């Protein structure tokens, strides 16, 4: 198994809801030590300020670090790599690193930076999460406040001012391992479903597309994708190379507060008899996951004739399994936790997993 620290890259246009999603994740980290790196530009440290002042228990001030020189592809050596090294050299290294890119940044140069030898043996990209403004995308605007995004671009001479937002958006989708269609509360159910299926067909095979309100996704769904994106850049072409900067609009059009925001997701446990063939079972799981749009499936299995417990982890249709330890005194059981967006067909899934 690999002992690199996983890092999740969160990308998406200005105002899509990245900060909101990260805040929710930190509030629900369940004891996981998450360090945050923010790629700021222009309005220095606005998000850093918001998140540092978060008052979330277990969120220490120095767990938030800022890259203050803007464009990652230009400042990798001077800024990003040293910041990562500082974080990794701490005696209390984090369990997970989350990097929020600024509104116009493309994720590709950042992901590629993980191949630099200074850090490549110590961290890996767990996954790229692209947050989209569901309402704006479904209306073909791509960002809530297009004027603010244009102002953000205009501020920087290095920026490509010509590329339509639709193409920058396509770049973000091409790099994603998970696409979060945020602001689902502003979309009708049909529009949300149509957008999800369009994004599924526009993205690479196996990319998960989920809807959210106020970025409220279970931490288990966001983190732990185990992709290793830096090793797989060929699949994630960017169409453009540009520079990014950041500017914060202060639209404040949302005052909803969802105290109980996990309703959108559900999870349940399925138990079954011993299995006989781990490889065949992994295939069976992959099929059930595809057929039922399951986001995560994890647990362990008893394999006939084996004293060791088989651990199973699936993110989308990719299933990993390995024997982790003897059952010992524990009952020889096969138990799987299924996680997905609400509306899973529990009976059918139970049946398919028990077959
Ligand atoms: N209605 C609605 N508003 C949302 C949702 N998620 C975020 N917002 C609002 O959208 C605005 C932008 O959210 P942020 O989280 O700051 O977006 P961001 O992507 O971090 O934006 P920048 O940091 O400025 O690039 C805020 O006013 C949020 O309260 C949502 O699901 N529904």
TrEMBL record:
The gene is cobW. GO terms for biological process: cobalamin biosynthetic process. It catalyses: GTP + H2O = GDP + phosphate + H(+). InterPro entries: CobW, CobW-likC_sf, CobW-like_C, CobW/HypB/UreG_nucleotide-bd, P-loop_NTPase, Zinc-reg_GTPase_activator. One of its GO terms (cellular component) is cytoplasm. Residues 265-355 form the CobW C-terminal domain. Belongs to the SIMIBI class G3E GTPase family. ZNG1 subfamily. This is Cobalamin biosynthesis protein CobW. Transmembrane segments: none annotated. Zinc chaperone that directly transfers zinc cofactor to target proteins, thereby activating them. Zinc is transferred from the CXCC motif in the GTPase domain to the zinc binding site in target proteins in a process requiring GTP hydrolysis. Gene3D superfamilies: CobW-like, C-terminal domain, P-loop containing nucleotide triphosphate hydrolases.
